[in-house]
Write a structure and sequence with these properties.
Helix 1 runs parallel beside helix 6 and helix 2 runs parallel beside helix 5. This protein starts with a helix and ends with a helix. It is an all-alpha fold and about 180 residues long. It is globular.
Length: about 180
């Protein structure tokens, strides 16, 4: 589930840092404008997630993990690549307000897919213990990912989004190999 949880770091830390970099470059005319972009992408992201998760959850439950996991990884990698490719959020405001909030949807799609599958696989009598082990492994991974994202951020404020695209692509390749 580390691949499912990694984007939380991007949404909580690097979106703010990325927008701060645009402010430093003079793309945003004021701190208020930057804050407006941050607040609205978060608000729209929650709205998008609320309205899309019901139909997405339905398909996740109905389709095999072999089909749905590669699909949601491709969608999430595509969303992160679109965010990475934003050069100027003011000039590309429509793209910004459509793609950045979709990170919430991409995050939830992958988390729900993996959690749904794992919960179906765990025997009922040891489900709590299996979930605990899963969370411990995720926590260990979440302590390593900030170093990876920080390394990328030091090269360019938008590189963590490309880094997440790469992680999703690697997960997709692993899924395809394991499912064959």
């Amino acid at each position: 589930t580390i691949f499912a949880s990694a984007p939380i770091l991007l949404m909580k830390i690097y979106v703010v840092s990325w927008l701060n970099a645009f402010e430093k470059e003079g793309i945003f005319t004021s701190k208020d404008q930057k804050d407006f972009y941050f607040e609205w992408q978060g608000t729209l992201g929650c709205i998008f997630a609320i309205f899309t998760m019901i139909p997405v959850g339905y398909f996740i439950d109905k389709l095999s993990l072999r089909i749905i996991l590669p699909i949601v990884l491709i969608i999430r990698a595509g969303i992160y690549y679109l965010v990475y490719s934003i050069e100027n959020p003011v000039k590309q405001s429509t793209r910004f307000f459509l793609t950045v909030p979709l990170m919430n949807v991409g995050l939830n799609m992958v988390v729900i897919t993996i959690k749904s599958h794992l919960n179906k696989q765990y025997p009922k009598d040891i489900r709590g213990m299996c979930t605990m082990v899963e969370h411990i492994i995720t926590t260990i991974g979440m302590t390593l990912l900030p170093s990876y994202f920080q390394f990328l951020y030091e090269k360019s404020p938008k590189l963590p989004f490309l880094g997440m695209t790469i992680l999703d692509s690697v997960a997709l390749v692993l899924c395809l190999i394991l499912f064959m």
